Amino acid sequence: MSFGRNVTTPWGQNWLNIAEPVLRKADSGRLERGLAYATPGRVPEPEFEPGRALATVDGSGTSRYRVEIILPGPDRIEAGCDCPDPVRPCKHVVAVVFRIGRIIDEDPSVLRTLRAAGGNSVPLPAEPLASPEDRTAGRSRWGTELATDAIDPADAFARPLQTLPDAVSAPDAVGEPCYCPPRPGTGVDLEALESIAAVAAGTAMTALVEADLPDGVGAT
Fold first, then answer.
1. Is residue 45 part of a domain?
2. Angle between helices 91-106 and 28-37 (to 10 degrees)
3. Can you tell me the distance from the alpha carbon of 66 to that of 84, in angstroms, rounded to the nearest whole number?
4. CA dihedral angle for residue 97, residue 111, residue 82, residue 86, rounded to 10 degrees
5. Is omega for the bond preceding 160 within 30 degrees of 0, making it cis?
6. What pLDDT is stored for residue 135 in this prediction?
7. Which PROSITE patterns does its entry note (predicted)?
């Protein structure tokens, strides 16, 4: 089973790498049920402190179980749960592991806290460098590293101005917006979304045609 597909950032992936020894011990049934439990509804906000996470998992019916995950040192992780399941890790531990991964996706500082065993500050792992084909507009896909072929700002400003292209003509009417249905379960009203898109397109059309611009600039 690929664990990385359940997170969206390199920091979330780093957490799953740390927790992999726990996840590898879980059977497929507990992995699947744990993933299904890894939601805010089942696992409310865990508590984080250096090298330690505590979480409550809402089980079936009114049952609630306490999960503790400890990182006593580099490349070491321990996890426990007070549920009656004799097999470890149980689905509740799996749920908390994946829930933490998704929290770290949104707030990487949580990873720093968990990796700070003994209260020591631990730097976050570096962002991955993008390959040349992933780079866009002089930035990496993570938005922090300059591409090796980026243009120096001074050279860019020193370039002579090119002749502007001829002004384009405004369309006769607003076209139909693209059909982009929201993902199931998001609760987005498709008709309302299409209405908003139509209003935005009409407003843009009016601004384009009626804009008070200098002669020779803008649409004709």
1. yes
2. 50
3. 11
4. 40
5. no
6. 38
7. ZF_SWIM (PS50966)
